[in-house]
Amino acid sequence: MTVEKLTPAGIGTLYGVGVGPGDPELITLKACRLLKECPVIAYPATQKGGKSYAHEIVELHVHAEEKVMLGLVFPMTKDPELLASGWNRTAELCWSELKQGRDVAFVTEGDPNLYSTFIHLARLMQELHPGVPIVSIPGISSVLGAAAALGQPLADGNQRVGIIPATGDREALKEALLHHDTVVFLKVAKVLDLVLDVLDELGLGGKASVVTKVTSPYETVWRDARELRGKELEYLSLMVVSK
Question: Which neighbouring-strand residues pair with 141?
């Protein structure tokens, strides 16, 4: 039976819990303990109620039927009014549990402080309900998972690493590649061919590898990213360029 603990103010703590990049064993002992202790587990959900990677990992470590499983649908729109409304609704769902003294563990793939949905949720919670204690639990990111999958170091000695969201900005891509010894392009699928063009332009075409759904049972590795030109990739794909 889970024991619900109260903070001194009678408000629950919002935890951002990194559960790793995909392999359910790549979760810290602290994250695992908190998932077992927190009465409420919040997770990103799809409009159709589908499970996220993070949710699948959690189910292997806790008895979901003993928890309040709070599926949060995050707004996927650029309309500022719809965006604000959706985010406020999401924050209030968490607040409805926190104000009753229940701790909420928001689970996220990778690390909660690296390009994570938790960053915006925590920021909004501080703005709307400044009395809520917020704590983040570090997790292993897909960047580190990719280095392990490829069997190559990200950096040694004085080498510089860039972790860059891949965008359609050609010059930004070039700048990142010119000023770092290793570049990890996140969410590369949507601009894959453009990135490959820039790599060819800089003479780095043979220096890039791609990993999809890293460390999960569905992981796929392409040692030579040039094989993927013109192909569609999964959303959870990243590219490692090592000079």
Answer: none
